[in-house]
C-alpha cells in the first residue's frame, strides 16, 4: 500500500458520470505523501461492511481543471451503484498505475480511463 486517506465525499461537476466513470472527490489531500497519478484503490465506506475496489486520480486533473488550483483525490468504484455523498470513506492507494497527464480532450481521457480500469482490475486479480 502506498498511502491511506480518510475524508468525507464531496460532489463535483459530474464529468466522470458523463464519461461513464462516476467519481467521488476527497479534498484536503494537499499534504498527502504520495505521487500524483492514477492508482488502484481499496475503499471502505463508513457503515458498510464491504470493501470496494476501484481506481483513483490524485492530483490536479489537468484535462478538466486547466487552472489546477487544488490537489484532490477523485475515485471511481468498480461494480458499485450506491450513493456515498456526504459519507466518510477511507481510501487506500494500493498500487501506482501511471503518472497524471493532460489529454487533448474528454474523448481521449475516456479511452485512457478504460485502459486504467483494465490495468487496475488486472492488478486486483493478481493481488487478491
Low-confidence stretches: none
> pLDDT average, as an integer?
89
CA-CA gap between termini: 13 Å
Rg over C-alpha atoms, rounded to the nearest angstrom? 13 Å
- Report the structural category: alpha+beta
Main sheet overview? 6 strands, antiparallel
Q: State the total count of DSSP E strands.
A: 6
β content, as a range? Answer: 35-45%
Number of helices: 2
Please give the order of strands in the largest beta sheet: 1-6-3-4-5-2
What proportion of the residues is helical, as a percent range? 10-25%
Tell the overall outline: globular
Reading the helices and strands in chain order gives EHEEEEEH
Task: Fill in the keyword field for this structure.
128 residues, alpha+beta, six-stranded antiparallel sheet, 2 helices, 6 strands, globular
What can you see in these coordinates?
It is a single chain. The chain has 128 residues and is an alpha+beta fold. The chain contains two helices and six strands; from the N terminus they run βαβββββα. A hairpin with a 5-residue loop joins strand 3 and strand 4.
Give the gist of this structure.
This protein is an alpha+beta fold and 128 residues long. The protein is built from two helices and six strands, in the order E-H-E-E-E-E-E-H. It has a six-stranded antiparallel β-sheet with strand order 1-6-3-4-5-2.
